[in-house]
Write a structure and sequence with these properties.
about 40% helix; alpha/beta; single chain; 5-stranded parallel sheet; 6 helices
């Protein structure tokens, strides 16, 4: 079984360290045998979460697309930056809107994150490596009933962490990312085997 894994970063800034981390994860997942879909949240623009807006116009189409895309994959890997010691607004807003989608494309009851395998990575230009943001993100996703795996890859001093090919310079980070990706793939295969009658 080849796991289908969706990868995205919590920032759309040009040259974002979280984007580079997501790219490194994409490479490692593919190397370990996964079928990887790499997307940018820039392609799914969403208004600020507002229940009045939801009541008047429904959940935005791009949130519905994202939710159904998450549902179509065996697992998700998210690379988050850290803003003011927490989750960036773009990523939190995306999770909030996706969590409001209640039906799949066939109209059946559906929650994109419920039971979904998720792996987390983080990055920052300082020594904390985004660990405060990743812990907050983990709590939010667990509340959404996601199955977030324990291993995580946090990249400190990200401005120095990548070589010209986009690969990690430090062996420690390479091993950390390999562990995250290997664990995610193993869990996806295990979940798939349990689901097969």
């Amino acid at each position: 079984m080849t796991p289908r894994i969706l990868v995205f970063a919590g920032s759309t800034r040009t040259g974002a360290y979280s984007g580079k981390t997501a790219d490194a994860a994409m490479k490692e997942l593919a190397l370990q045998g996964a079928d990887v879909t790499r997307i940018s949240l820039a392609d799914y623009p969403l208004p600020l979460m507002n229940q009045d807006l939801e009541r008047e116009k429904g959940v935005p189409e791009d949130a519905v697309k994202l939710a159904h895309m998450i549902g179509a994959h065996d697992a998700v890997l998210i690379a988050t930056p850290e803003y003011n010691a927490s989750i960036p607004p773009l990523l939190k807003n995306t999770v909030d809107w996706v969590s409001r989608v209640k039906a799949d494309a066939q109209g059946r009851p559906f929650r994109a994150f419920s039971g979904k395998l998720v792996a987390l990575c983080s990055s920052s230009d300082g020594g904390y490596a985004g660990v405060r943001a990743i812990n907050h993100l983990r709590a939010v996703l667990v509340h959404c009933q996601a199955d977030v795996i324990t291993p995580q890859c946090s990249v400190p001093r990200a401005q120095e962490a990548f070589d010209e090919k986009g690969d990690f310079r430090e062996e420690r980070l390479k091993k950390s990312m390999a562990k995250v990706c290997g664990t995610l793939i193993a869990h996806a295969r295990l979940f798939a085997s349990r689901a097969t009658p």
